[in-house]
Write a structure and sequence with these properties.
By secondary structure, this protein is mainly alpha-helical. The protein is 79% helix and 0% strand.
Amino acid sequence: MTALVLLLVAVSALMHASWNYLTKSSRDKTTFLWATGLAGSVLFLPALLWSGDGRPWSGRVWLGFGLGAVIRALYFLSLGAAYSRGDLSLVYPVARGMAPVLVPVTAAAVLGERLSAAGALGVAAVALGVYLVHLPGLEARDLLAPLTALRAAPTRYAAVTGVLTTSYSLVDKWNIADGAPPLAYAYFTIPVAALLLTPAVLWRPGRGLAECRGSGWRIPVVALLMTSGYLLVLVALQSTQVSYVAPARELGIVFGTILGSVVLREGAAPQRVAGASAIVLGVALLSLAS
């Protein structure tokens, strides 16, 4: 990856960790994510109109938009369910941590991508870092804890979110490689995906109204961070394999660890520091891959 692509992905990862932190602080996660869709539709409409990406597209492009939006909607539902049941420091690393392993393997089979030696080492380092972040301790009995944790409901929902992350990452690359304009794709995918949650919100209108009133400034801020961060990734995908971009996005786990340690005062256990360091090393190796 070039320095510019790495910078785009790093800034996107920071934005992603930040909006996940704000989403976790909301009360009704589904309604909160739905409201960010409304806000995003308004906030980014001037940029879309100014860019000229609002021109008519072929049926193939619209199919790509629709598929991306549906997968994103399912992602929002599973993410909201995970955060309703588990802590940020548990859910976020699981939800983000599956992509480094699943995306390169799936991309090789579906998109025909191949990793260089440095890229393969980078992916392995990121995967190791994600696993270390989940260790409760550094003793022998702790080594299998991340696997046994899959029996817990928050972890299962987070794992489903990780699979959906892999799915939309591949769909994003497929659509961007096929010529879908990044700004328009981001605009129609994330806000439309959130708006697909409307039936779930209308099912409980009282709680939805209370959430919108209580969240206040967080809704437009998350809408801005979510769509802007996503747009940066789409721009990166125009020139880089998804097999490299998806693992590099796991820098968000480093930022999430910092948020948990400093803001939420969860502490900085040695295994979290080691895991975050391995992720940074892996991303550095990915930056050397071509």
